Amino acid sequence: LSQMLAGAYLLSALLYMARLLWQWRGTRAMVRRSAALPLDATAGGLVKAAAQRFSIATPAIRCSDEMRGPVVLGLRRAMLLAPGGFFASSEEDAAAALAHECAHLARSDYAKNLFYECVAAVVAYHPMSWMMRRRIAETRELVCDEMAAGAVGDRPEYAASLLRLATAMAAPGHSPAGRRRP
Fold first, then answer.
1. Which residues, at least 6 apart from 151, have a Cβ–Cβ distance to it below 8 Å?
2. 3-state secondary structure 121-170
3. CA 112/CA 97 separation, integer angstroms
4. Given this model, what pLDDT does residue 163 score?
5. Which pLDDT score, from 0 to 100, does residue 37 have?
6. DSSP string over the chain
7. How far does CA 115 lie from the centroid of its chain?
8. Does the N-terminal or the C-terminal CB of the chain have fewer CB atoms within 10 Å?
């Protein structure tokens, strides 16, 4: 019985790590398929201003139509992966989203999340581990929202910008700029 339990434990840990590796490979493939995004002066200024607010290096910007909203990636070199048309949204909305993503970079959330996921493999079999990881992710988002709202300075406008972006991202077949995807 103890060997069966140990085998089941090892199998759950291996399956969890295999899923994590599969997701990591999928993310890497999406980055390879993405394109460098040349920014005009306005968009470049928004990115630089957001990075300066959090005292971080300006991230590389890439574009991928496989996603609905911006995310930051990278262990060694920070990268902002944005959907096509992201910078076509209003300046206030783009600045709010960039502040949020730069807060993630300032906190090193990508590296921390990767570490947490690897550690979670030890207790992946337990249902509470799923709930705990979900709660950590929610808390991470709330902390970044608080940091971004403080950096932007206008909390009600920051909240309104995030609501507009979330509404646009949730709409099926629409990019954050509100245009239909091809």
1. 50, 53, 54, 99, 102, 103
2. HHHCCCHHHHHHHHHHHHHHHHHHHHHHHHHHCCHHHHHHHHHHHHHHHH
3. 21
4. 86
5. 85
6. -HHHHHHHHHHHHHHHHHHHHHHHHHHHHHHHHSEE----HHHHHHHHHHHHHTT-PPPEEEE-TT-SS-EEE-SSS-EEEE-TTGGGS-HHHHHHHHHHHHHHHHHTHHHHHHHHHHHHGGGTTSHHHHHHHHHHHHHHHHHHHHHHHHHHS-HHHHHHHHHHHHHHHHSTTB-TTSPBP-
7. 15
8. N
Q: Give me the residue label for tokens 């991202």.
A: 169
| Structure-block tokens of residue 4 | 């069966």
Tens-of-pLDDT digits for all 182 residues of the chain?
899 989 988 998 899 999 999 999 999 999 999 998 888 888 899 999 999 999 999 999 999 988 888 999 988 889 999 988 888 878 888 899 999 999 999 999 999 998 988 888 888 878 888 899 899 999 999 999 999 998 888 788 888 888 888 887 777 665 444 333 33
In Å, how far from its chain's centre is CA 132?
Answer: 19
137 Cβ contact partners less than 8 Å away, ≥ 6 residues apart: 113
Q: What are phi and psi of 72, to 5 degrees?
A: -110, 140
- The pair of structure tokens assigned to 32 is 């390879």
